[in-house]
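Hi V.,

You were right to ask for the full record rather than a summary. Here it is.
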Amino acid sequence: MGRTVREVLAAGGGLMALDTARAAELLATAWPAAAAAAEPQASAGDLTRYTREPGLAVMPVRGLLTPNSALLERYLGWATYRGIAEACADLAADDAVSAVVVEFDTPGGYTLGIEDAVTALRDLAAVKPVHALAAPLAASAGYWLASQARELVMTPRAAVGSIGVAVTAAANVAPGAASGVQLFDFTSRHARAKWPDPATEDGKAEIRRGLDRTEARFHAAVAEGRGIAPEDLAARLSVSDDPEDGGAVFEAAEALARGLADRIETRAAFYARLRAAHAPAPRKGLARGARALAAAARAKARL
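Predicted structure:
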C-alpha cells in the first residue's frame, strides 16, 4: 500500500506554516510514487506555472507548499517556493505582461524556502502590479505570500489567516506502548538542542524557541506587506484581548475589518476589473484599418 503525503512529509520533519484542519484532504492524498516511477526523468523544467492573456499573467498557488518538490508540482499541480520564485523572475522580465495575478487556494506548507519566494514576489511587485486573489483560501504560508501583493482580494466566503508556525515532534516510548517501538536518539555532547525531547520541559522550551523565531519572521513579513505596524499585528490577529490567542482563520468580512485584505469581490468581477485596467489599448492604425474594412463591407452589402 502506498504512502500518503502526510506520511512522507512527516518523515522529512521541518517547521510548518499550515492550517492542518483545512489541509486534511490534501494530507491524505496518495504520494505519486507510481507516476514518478513511470517517468523517472521527470523534472519541473517544462511545467506551466502561469498563463498569459493580453497584458495580464495569472499564477496559481495551490496545494501543500514545499520548497522544491518537482514531483508534487508535476503530478498534483501543487506550487513550490522554487517554482514561484522562478515564475516571478520570468514575469518581471516579460514586457508583454503589465500586471500579475497570484491566485491562492492553499492551506500553507513548509516554512523552509518560503522567504526566497517572498523576496521574489516583492521584487516582482517593485516593477509591476501584483494582485493576490484568495479563491477560496490563502492560509498560513499561503497568507505569508499573499500579504506581499499590492492588493489582496477575497472572493465571497473565502478565508485567510492561520498566521503562525507549528512542528510535529515525537517523544520516545517504552516497549509495550501503543506504537510497540522503543526509540533512542543520540547526539554529540554539545548538540543538546539538535533533537529536543518534547517529553521534557527543556525540550518543549527549545521547540517553542524555534517556533517563535520563525513566527517572528512571519509576522515581520506580513506587517511589511500589509503596511501594519509590527507592534500592532499580534493584537489584530488575536481572537481575544490576549495577543497570544492568534493563529485563527478569518472569513472575508472579518479579514477586511482586521486589515488583512483589501476588498471582497467575485472572481469574475476581479478579473474583469484587472483586464479592463491592464489589457493593451488597440493600436490606432489597426483601428483605422478595421473601420475601413467595415465601411467596405457595408458598401458591398448595399450593392
